[in-house]
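User: Show me a protein chain along with its predicted structure.
Assistant: Here is one chain, sequence first, then structure tokens.
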Amino acid sequence: MLRFDDLQLFVRAADLGSLSAAARGMDMSAAVASAALKRIEHQLGARLLARSTRSLRLTAEGEGFLE
């Protein structure tokens, strides 16, 4: 079952374009935020966000899930 706080983090990260900014806004560490995103992706069996050290963008699956 998907956790509501994990979903909130995903939506916020997608809106801000930054996982660390979303984590700060939700008063959690970047490591906790990363684990939450991995939980969602594992449960859905799809990569939702393409992450690098400098950018974050929605994948096609992430765009569909966000809608």
